[in-house]
């Protein structure tokens, strides 16, 4: 099992998601819950497409953190 970092972005009317470690794998949804489900499905399906193209399945290497500043 591999665990990937996922970035969720709120836009004006929807949400989007992507993983820096899995180029080309993206999802959108009307809500955060919906985009999470959609990305889970996309990420489960994406390796099959990579295999068909003869490409390796990337290992998760990205980490994330937060930095606080005075505002």
Describe this structure as you would to a colleague.
This protein is α+β, with helices and mostly antiparallel strands. The chain has one domain (1-71): Double Stranded RNA Binding Domain, CATH 3.30.160.250. Helix content is 30%, strand content 17%. The chain has a three-stranded antiparallel beta sheet, with helices on one face. The longest helix has 21 residues, at 32-52. The relative contact order is 0.22. The mean pLDDT is 95.
Topology of helices and strands:
Blueprint: E1 7-10, E2 15-18, E3 26-29, H1 32-52
Antiparallel strand pairs: 1-2, 2-3
Distance between the amino and carboxyl termini: 40 Å
Q: Helical residue percent?
A: 25-40%
Low-confidence stretches: none
What portion of the residues fall into strands of 2 or more residues?
15-25%
With helices defined by DSSP (H or I, 4 residues minimum), what is the helix count? Answer: 1
Biggest sheet record: 3 strands, antiparallel
CATH level-1 class: Alpha Beta
The CATH architecture would be 2-Layer Sandwich
Order of the strands making up the biggest sheet: 1-2-3
What letter string, H or E per element, gives the SSE order?
EEEH
The whole-number mean of residue pLDDT values reads 95
What structural category arises from helix and sheet content?
A: alpha+beta
**Tally of domains:** 1
Q: Within the CATH hierarchy, at the fold level, what is the topology? A: Double Stranded RNA Binding Domain
Net shape: flat
Summed up:
With about 70 residues, the chain is of the alpha+beta class. Helices cover about 30% and strands about 15% of the residues. It has a single domain (about 1-70), classed as Double Stranded RNA Binding Domain, CATH 3.30.160.250.
């Amino acid at each position: 099992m591999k665990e990937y970092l996922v970035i969720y972005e709120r836009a004006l009317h929807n949400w989007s998601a992507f993983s820096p470690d899995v180029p080309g794998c993206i999802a959108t949804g009307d809500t955060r819950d919906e985009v999470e489900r959609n990305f889970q499905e996309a990420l489960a399906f994406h390796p099959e497409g990579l295999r068909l193209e003869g490409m390796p399945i990337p290992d998760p290497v990205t980490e994330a953190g937060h930095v606080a500043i005075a505002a």
